[in-house]
């Protein structure tokens, strides 16, 4: 038994959906299909949330209505009945009500945000399952939020494995032999029944969680816009290749450090069960692709890039003991739901890298909005002087390297204005934080080291 996930660009038109359904029909070992929101929908929902948070109510509604109209047209083109069209409208009307709550209660932004962001997957999976039925495929839509239970860390929730596994065994496994199961990625619920999300590209994480609980033989991630995992984005750097084999460890490093092709937690459930993950094209499946497993390539195999990074420099003005200084930093970041990403502590100072890219910890510019409009800065100033440096990007090179290569990489970026660098003790990643103006120079300097060892 296999489980498949189809990304947003694979479910944006009738033609794309039909391509995905042909993959499922041609290989009956696929018993579960996990569906993402259609292309750019999550970004647009984030925009609606951001406008609502800033008090731009009519602009937020305009964005939501445009998304609704696009999905109604897709549902109609897929042959959806009036009942299905009504269900699509109901889901978006629910979104309006949640946005209305947000504009009167901004303190609970993250909870309301997860409810609104769930709209994308709920609607796309509904349309996908109905199209399957139009094509005479025996399919059943199952609500993943009745399966995956998480904590209440909205925006980047963590699954409660024993509860989720119980639900999968009780409610999902009995259905698998009777029909193709269509469900959603990215979303879940907490124990109070509120929608939660697993982080950007969380659909990949969802399919890995479900695949591990179902003990499948393979997890397949079909993405229409890529053939597999490239050494780097081919739209930015020329002459980069699809990585045929990637180890679990290198895949984790690449995705955590910026490669957007997968959610960085995707690999963990599969790795624990020894389940291979195949990243493939939904348009031209099984022709190239990347296989993630225990076995990977050797040497430096790829680059990652994270845009919209911030470096927060804190000076310990109260001369607190180091452990007290760290506790205070952690306390404030936890209170305001910031994720401490990369952290270096000296006796009287701290350097913290904050990821505020699209798909970062709290989706888009929300973190910096919170930083500017809450008591975050005031609380920091009570025990430290701080400086926030913006317009930065994090560039990383992934794969095994020795001390000689590390020294050469440091030398290669020595002419750039590097704000921060990190070398993994395991010698499997090297990262530098540079100004946006230096990013291309940094990428070209690092590209020369790929596949040389």
CATH hierarchy class name of the largest domain = Alpha Beta
CATH fold topology of the largest domain: Carbamate kinase
Which structural class matches the secondary elements? alpha/beta
Give the tally of structural domains: 2
Low-pLDDT stretches: 359-365
Shape estimate = globular
Number of strand segments: 17
CATH homology-level superfamily of the largest domain: Acetylglutamate kinase-like
Largest sheet: 8 strands, mixed
Based on the coordinates given, report the CATH architecture of the largest domain: 3-Layer(aba) Sandwich
User: Which band does the percent of strand residues land in?
Assistant: 15-25%
What oligomeric state do these chains adopt?
single chain
Cα end-to-end separation: 37 Å
Structural commentary:
The protein has helices spanning 14-26, 41-53, 57-77, 82-104, 109-134, 161-172, 202-214, 248-256, 267-273, 322-335, 366-373, 376-381, 403-412, 439-447, and strands at residues 2-6, 30-35, 139-141, 149-150, 180-184, 187-190, 195-197, 218-222, 245-247, 277-280, 290-293, 300-316, 342-346, 349-355, 384-399, 418-423, 429-435. With 453 residues, the chain is of the alpha/beta class. It contains 14 helices and 17 strands. Strand 1 (2-6), helix 1 (14-26) and strand 2 form a beta-alpha-beta unit. 41% of the residues lie in helices and 23% in strands. The strands form three sheets. An eight-stranded mixed sheet has the order 3-5-2-1-8-10-11-9, sandwiched between helices. A six-stranded antiparallel sheet has the order 13-14-12-15-17-16. The chain has a three-stranded mixed sheet with strand order 4-6-7. It has two domains: 2-297, 3-Layer(aba) Sandwich (Carbamate kinase); 302-447, VC0802-like (2-Layer Sandwich). Helix 3 (57-77) runs antiparallel to helix 4 (82-104) and helix 7 (202-214) runs parallel beside helix 9 (267-273).
């Amino acid at each position: 038994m296999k489980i498949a996930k189809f990304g947003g660009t694979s479910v944006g038109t009738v033609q794309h959906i039909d391509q995905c359904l042909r993959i499922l029909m041609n290989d009956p070992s696929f018993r579960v299909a996990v569906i993402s929101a259609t292309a750019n929908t999550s970004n647009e929902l984030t925009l609606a949330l951001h406008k609502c948070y800033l008090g731009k109510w009519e602009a937020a509604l305009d964005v939501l209505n445009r998304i609704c109209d696009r999905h109604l047209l897709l549902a109609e083109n897929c042959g959806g009945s009036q009942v299905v069209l009504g269900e699509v409208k109901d889901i978006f009307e629910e979104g309006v009500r949640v946005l209305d709550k947000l504009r009167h209660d901004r303190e609970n932004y993250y909870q309301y945000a997860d409810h609104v962001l769930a709209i994308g997957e709920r609607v796309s999976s509904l349309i996908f399952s109905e199209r399957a039925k139009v094509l005479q495929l025996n399919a059943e839509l199952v609500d993943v939020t009745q399966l995956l239970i998480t904590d209440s860390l909205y925006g980047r929730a963590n699954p409660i494995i024993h509860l989720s596994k119980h639900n999968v065994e009780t409610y999902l496994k009995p259905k698998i032999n009777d029909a193709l199961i269509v469900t959603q990625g990215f979303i879940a619920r907490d124990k109070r029944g509120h929608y939660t999300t697993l982080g950007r590209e969380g659909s990949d994480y969802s399919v890995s969680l479900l695949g591990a609980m179902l003990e499948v033989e393979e997890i397949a991630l079909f993405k229409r816009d890529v053939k597999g995992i490239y050494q780097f984005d081919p739209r930015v750097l020329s002459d980069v290749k699809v990585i045929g084999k990637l180890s679990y460890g290198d895949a984790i490093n690449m995705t955590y450090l910026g490669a957007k092709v997968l959610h960085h937690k995707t690999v963990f459930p599969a790795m624990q069960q020894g389940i291979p993950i195949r990243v493939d094209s939904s348009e031209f499946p099984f022709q190239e692709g990347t296989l993630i497993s225990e076995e990977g390539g050797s040497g430096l195999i790829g680059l990652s890039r994270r845009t919209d990074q911030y470096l927060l420099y804190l000076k310990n003005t109260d001369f607190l003991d180091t452990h007290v200084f760290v506790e205070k930093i952690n306390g404030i970041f936890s209170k305001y739901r910031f994720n401490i990403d990369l952290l270096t502590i000296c006796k009287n100072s701290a350097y913290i890298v904050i990821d505020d890219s699209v798909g970062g910890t709290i989706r888009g510019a929300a973190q910096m909005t919170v930083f500017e409009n809450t008591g975050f800065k005031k609380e920091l100033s009570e025990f430290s002087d701080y400086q926030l440096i913006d317009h930065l990007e994090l560039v990383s090179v992934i794969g095994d390297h020795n001390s000689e290569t590390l020294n050469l990489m440091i030398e290669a970026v020595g002419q750039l204005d590097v704000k921060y660098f990190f070398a993994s003790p395991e010698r499997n990643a090297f990262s530098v934080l540079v100004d946006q103006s230096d990013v291309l120079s940094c990428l070209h300097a690092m590209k020369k080291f790929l596949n040389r060892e």
